[in-house]
Amino acid sequence: EQIYPVSPLAVPNGEGEDPWSYGAVTLFAARSRSSGAHLAEDPSTGLAVASICRQLDGIPLAIELAAARAAALGIAALGANLDDRFSLLTGGRRTALPRHRTLRATLDWSFEFLSEPERAILRRLAVFAGAFSLDAACAVAADAEIAPSEVVDGLSSLIAKSLVATGAEDTPARFRLLDTTRAYALEKLTESGEGGAVSRRHAEYYRDLLQAAAEDTTSVDDPRAGPAAEIDNVRAALAWAFGPEGDTTIGVALGAAAVPIWFEMSLLTECCMWTEKALGVLDAAGLGTNQEMVLQYALGCSLMFARGMNDRAYATLTRARELAEHHEDLTYQLRTLAGLAAMHQRFQDYQGAVALGRRAEELVKGSFDPIALSFAEWILGSSLQLLGEYPEALTYAQRAYAHTAIPAARRAHIARLGRDGFVSAGSTMAIILWAQGLPDQSAQAARNVLADAEAGNHPVSLCLALTWCGCIIPLRLGDMRTAQRSIARLKDHARNHGLSAYYANGLCFEGQLAAKRGDLVAAERLLREGLKNLRQTRSETFYTVSLTGLAEVLTISAESGESLAAAEEAVQRAERANALWWMPEALRIKGEALLSCNGDTNAAEDHFRRSLDLAHRQGALSWELRAGTSLARLLRDQGHPADAEALLQPIYDRFTEGFDTADLKAAEALLDRL
Q: With contact defined as beta carbons under 8 Å apart, do 347 and 544 qualify?
């Protein structure tokens, strides 16, 4: 004999492919047409057929049986009813062997040839959702009657009989049951009456696995490897633990241990769901424990990203901080301080964020741990930047950038904070470089951060990089192509991962881009929609920024009354929050609105000069150039071209780079006319 492994037919994996070029879809089309079905080869039908073939694992017999039902049911109904595939997939060709006339008959025939231990092992393996390791198989399938060594032998036999699949390239080896085989084996597991015991062993195994790996940030470079590869089994274990036949004690422990996975994969809506379930069943003995601390922290962070900066998120993070201080847990003290600081930043309480950063700095004083140091440095760098304290902010951001360049530190930030500290620190550096009048260096830093975030493909970190380095900086530089591409990606990623505040940012950036391209109607519509969403998520910092953008659009549109009201509100918000990073621009736009609204040149000049003076004191040369350009244009229009040139030329001459960027080109054009 010679054994020739026959793989399932190829099926398309995504929507960007042509499904009609795959063997599974081709077979389905041929067999369905021979049974009288009318199958149009259009994209939507192709996607529907591809989905059916994927659910059937590309197994030719299953595809033939499904295709035979297509004429009677139609493609949509067929796909919707595949969960009941053993009743549905019957009526094969009359010339076929009896065991090939229904899907159940095929599997019954194979199952009857197994020994009793092999049958037990197969049905127990059905509890696994997705791939599993040999250790997992032994832990779940073994019991008093079947030793782990027998599980190894039985698994080998099931692989040889094509009832268990193995990944040819997996190292170490991983196994899985095809969906159809698993559905059949689950029925057998239910009939055996041992489903509860097997599910318990399954949940206990993944609880122990994740607890052992909770603080391991060095085993693999890819955060989606290791425990994160077990996500389907973790979900299945949690569903059992919190289900009617489950054990909530296991569920609470597993829910806490699974937090790094949700953070690493930016599955924050799912993190909310499981941590809420776990906190909801905590008994008196569980309150105040380390488990509650972990769950409260995870819930607060995931609420912050997924549902906006709401009071509940703040309350849960505050509770987690109290527990961390009670247990003297340095790691969670730093995590909660970072989470609360992020909320203070979004609430425009920058002084409060700095205070939290100073507390974190005290906690890590004397430490040589780059991970611990980077937590405090990130808080202070990003918070001081928002206060317009650029030199000190840059120092902290550069330190954080250096410390988080270590792979272990990057993984720790993702697993503990839900975002990449290297990307955060790099974004802060890029923004500061632009403000300080180094647009070329800022652009290069932004490109580096964006490329790194793209390569890492961590959704929250990528949205962060797209916001600051892909949208804000390119819009300031006049790089419309990069901005357009980044805005589309930001909206897409935010929508796909339930990151509502980032999606609102994307709408506002899209409005700003439309304004720069002269489409003021679209710009106003997008900015208003984005502002509405930002208000709902309480993202105060970006609300102020986007409100200033709306005021500018309304000023250009000559909607003077409303533009002045929006500009005034933006200035007031910036003043209340001491948002000095944005105040120069808010003052400048209000000056433009005053000119447009009532031609009040004195008030406009006062706002331009206040903007100019503040930017100069901050060392924010780029903001100084914008304010100087507006003021020089006003002086020219008042008949004082020499004064305008004397004001603007020295500012322009202080630049050493960036002469192809939008602001410098506008200033140069004005100087030429003067």
A: no
